[in-house]
């Protein structure tokens, strides 16, 4: 039952119950998808396991996206458990906190490389190993932010990494389209999560969205969950290489 009945989907990036990936998982499960979750390290394993256990039939696998062999191991496990994969959710980003304040011009070589490795390259690294499992066609989605196209205060190197991520979405969509695989991004408004804690003056950003966005409210993770579900469902079959905003309209004003 549901739009995603009989579909196998992998969700990467759940750290806790506030994670956007967790909201996406709820929306996918509500439409009948069978889910696999990955966790970054033992540090979060137990927390993610408790969450995954609340979704019957789901499985849990380790994968730190900075290690090629972990991604290869993940692909092998997914092949074994699911055979065919239909959907992939990439909801992963990281930058050092010291790079998320002050001036972008002060970004270090190592900080730049790390932010791009985890937040941008990882999408290609996982798509590369998982698209061969999408033998019935598929949909890949990732999470981005307005800082990719505007120089937003404190977002700094993460904005540059998100720009690379959005460009990667277009190149991956061009490559994988002939295989019946779509690739898109959701650009979400700011949401209070673990990752958001790293961004300086996050409260001020939320306040501004509440005042200025056309719908006069901040983004709820469940709204992003449903937009992601749409992108992973056949309802969006004509959409690929796209960045869809789920931000209560904030990006069209001021
Ligand atoms: O306002 C926001 N929260 C927005 C977030 C607005 C627009 C976009 N996004 C994006 C983020 O940039 C990210 O790409 O959404 C995605 C998910 O972020 P989130 O849900 O806000 O944050 P969080 O719950 O922290 O999930 C990100 C997770 C990591 O969490 P922590 O906080 O432990 O770093 O990404 C995962 C990890 O679970 N992650 C990794 N996974 C595998 N390998 C790695 C890694 N090396 N590094 C981080």
From TrEMBL:
Active-site residue list: 145 (proton acceptor), 155 (proton acceptor)
Tell me the enzyme class: oxidoreductase
Q: What catalytic activity does the UniProt entry give for this protein? A: a 2,3-saturated acyl-[ACP] + NAD(+) = a (2E)-enoyl-[ACP] + NADH + H(+)
> What are the binding positions for NAD(+) in this chain?
13, 19-20, 92, 162, 191-195
Q: In which pathway does it act?
A: Lipid metabolism; fatty acid biosynthesis
Q: Which GO terms describe its biological process?
A: fatty acid biosynthetic process
**Keywords for this protein:** Fatty acid biosynthesis, Fatty acid metabolism, Lipid biosynthesis, Lipid metabolism, NAD, Oxidoreductase
- Which Gene Ontology molecular-function terms are recorded? enoyl-[acyl-carrier-protein] reductase (NADH) activity
In which residues is substrate bound?
95
User: Lipid biosynthesis: present as a keyword of the record?
Assistant: yes
Pfam families noted in UniProt:
adh_short_C2
Which PANTHER family has this protein been placed in? ENOYL-[ACYL-CARRIER-PROTEIN] REDUCTASE (PTHR43159), ENOYL-[ACYL-CARRIER-PROTEIN] REDUCTASE [NADH], CHLOROPLASTIC (PTHR43159:SF2)
Family from the record: Belongs to the short-chain dehydrogenases/reductases (SDR) family. FabI subfamily.
Q: From the Swiss-Prot or TrEMBL record, give the protein name.
A: Enoyl-[acyl-carrier-protein] reductase [NADH]
What is the source species?
Answer: Paenibacillus lycopersici
